[in-house]
Amino acid sequence: METVVSGIRPTGNLHLGNYFGALQNFVKMQNEHRCFFFIADYHSLTTHPTPADLHGNVRNVLVEYLACGLDPEKATLYVQSDLPETAELYLFLNMNAYLGELERCTSFKDKARTQPNNVNAGLLTYPTLMAADILLHRASKVPVGKDQEQHLEMTRTFANRFNRLYKVDYFPEPIAFNFGEDLIKVPGLDGCLKMSKSENENSCIFLADTPEAIRKKIMKATTDAGPTEPNQPKPQAIENIFGLMKIVSQPATLLHFQELYNACQIRYGDMKKQLAEDMVAYISPFSEKISALSSDYDYLRKVAKLGAEKAHESAAKTMREIREIIGFKAF
Ligand code: ADP
Ligand code: TRP
């Protein structure tokens, strides 16, 4: 049995990319491993949400975790800010994280470009906070999507550096995990490579979307006039429609549209109608559970309390040991 940690930032509702890149694996792993799945609300502060938005989004993610099948009895489900030990470990790790390596991080460079008026220290040290989340439970596996690979590499660097500095073998080297498969990237409806809420809300199918919303979005998805020669390579936007179909439709359906495409007979209107119906069938079980759970505040409170207690037990042990290793000793 290995220790598993992962989290998602509460920035709104979760989408199909979050599900396939992360959540689906959380659900699969909870039966076999010691799992900690949290809601990364400290991380959200880099973009200065209002208190009401922050709380509402934490609640959305908790509801969606449960609706997707995470079981609070099997896995530890908690809210990051319920575990202030995270902040203490973040402080320790920051003492051995260097400006150059933090500045070179791709996600930092992207954010510095997209939010030039808010390049705060939290953004720069995002990878050390993420490393603190993982190392706090001494995890060895981290189910995340492809875009998080570099953060995992930095977590390994910080873990090894700590071990070397204090001449201990305390932290394991955590790896991004997807059951031996390549890390997944779900494509967007807007023709962009990745379905992403922070890049473009319109690229996303949300787990909470109603059937009407799904149909409308898919019918509006970017396409073109169609191929002009047989077996032509697909432009990105078309590749994406096929990519989404591969995820939610039957293999025979995908093959059918592939053949029409290769023969230059494809009608994207028909393909999108089919994709919309398959997507509705896929998403409906989630959206129904989400709407049933979202008003059950008593249950949500109970889940968060249980998770905070279990997570605290694990974190407190690690912090006691780390303080000792560093040399903070009681008199
Ligand atoms: P967004 O890009 O929408 O802001 P996040 O960065 O909050 O999404 O991602 C949360 C988790 O979901 C991460 O583990 C990330 O790797 C995964 N993820 C997000 N979008 C995708 C996608 N399109 N395909 C695969 N995984 C994804
Ligand atoms: N950085 C992750 C994201 O944007 C969220 C996250 C924060 C995380 N801490 C983590 C993921 C620890 C895995 C482990 O999606």
How would you portray this structure in words?
The protein is mostly helical and 331 residues long. The chain folds into two domains: 3-177 and 297-326, HUPs (Rossmann fold, 3-Layer(aba) Sandwich); 201-291, Orthogonal Bundle (Tyrosyl-Transfer RNA Synthetase). Helix content is 55%, strand content 6%. Helix 3 (51-67) crosses helix 13 and helix 4 (85-94) packs across helix 8 (126-135). It binds adenosine-5'-diphosphate and tryptophan. The site of tryptophan has 14 residues, from strand 1 and helix 8.
Shape: globular
Largest sheet: 3 strands, parallel
The residue ranges in which pLDDT falls below 50 over 5 or more consecutive positions are none
Helix proportion of residues, in percent? 40-55%
Distinct ligands, ions and cofactors found in the model: adenosine-5'-diphosphate, tryptophan
Domains counted in the coordinates: how many? 2
- CATH class division of the largest domain: Alpha Beta
| Structural class label | mainly alpha
Euclidean distance between termini CA atoms: 37 Å
Oligomer: single chain
CATH architecture of the largest domain: 3-Layer(aba) Sandwich
CATH topology type of the largest domain: Rossmann fold
Order of helices and strands: EHEHHEHHHHHEHEHHHHH
